[in-house]
Amino acid sequence: MIGKHLEMIVEGRDLQAHCTDMLLPYARGQLAEPFPLCWCASSNDESQAVGAALRAQHYACIDDVEACTGLHQCLADMHSGGELAPGEILAGMQQRRRSDLMRWLPALGADLQPAIGRVLRAVDRLIAGLAGQKGLREELHGLPLQRNEVQATCYPGSANAHYVRHVDETGQSATRRVLTCIAYANPNWSHGDGGELRLHLAGKTVDITPRDHRVVIFFSDARVPHEVTPSKKDRYALSVWYHDMTGTDIA
């Protein structure tokens, strides 16, 4: 399984509709942190829980993801070795929207660092379990999605690095981003360190701390505009985008 427990923020009516077998405390309105939803005994349980969260609120958050072990050291080594470059340059942006350092990695390459490969395989298994779920088939076009982009990032604390509000799927590519997955690798991260993933959802804003061994999954389209708040410490993450490859010739 990918993580020891899944977390999601959900209002009471959504909890009742999607998780009627679970009795959990909840709070209405804006919440700063997810709370435990369930303890998943298998990867199938986890996929079902993630699917329920995506249907209810368009994102899901999983903690204690064992596959993320070693990811922090891997990304920190890339950073200290000068392998990450300013995101503005690599993304080809004209305005200063982001101040992170980043590197595009081969999405399907076999020569990735072992720590990165472990994360990708774990998330692949989770995403594969979503395609056949009732209520998600239409969202995912009834087809398995393909991992098509992988990005390593560091938001340097010395620069209060951030990323302004944006949407991942802009309609400018030949294929369409459907799901965004972010694995965080930041030991001993606290609320005062900043760097939150801020989701702008219908009627509320949700801040998610980029704590170590945490994975967040959300729809890449306009349902989930998001930003990264200024970071006071070096903040590491591995971002993965799963595409609808319909109409393309996949080798």
From TrEMBL:
GO biological process: cellular response to hypoxia
Alphabetized UniProt keyword annotations: Dioxygenase, Iron, Metal-binding, Oxidoreductase, Vitamin C
InterPro entries: HIF_prolyl_hydroxylases, Oxoglu/Fe-dep_dioxygenase_dom, Pro_4_hyd_alph, Pro_4_hyd_alph_FE2OG_OXY
Residue stretches making up the Fe2OG dioxygenase domain: 146-244
Pfam families linked: 2OG-FeII_Oxy_3
A GO MF label: peptidyl-proline dioxygenase activity
Cofactor: L-ascorbate
Protein name (Swiss-Prot/TrEMBL): Fe2OG dioxygenase domain-containing protein
Native source species: Coccolithus braarudii
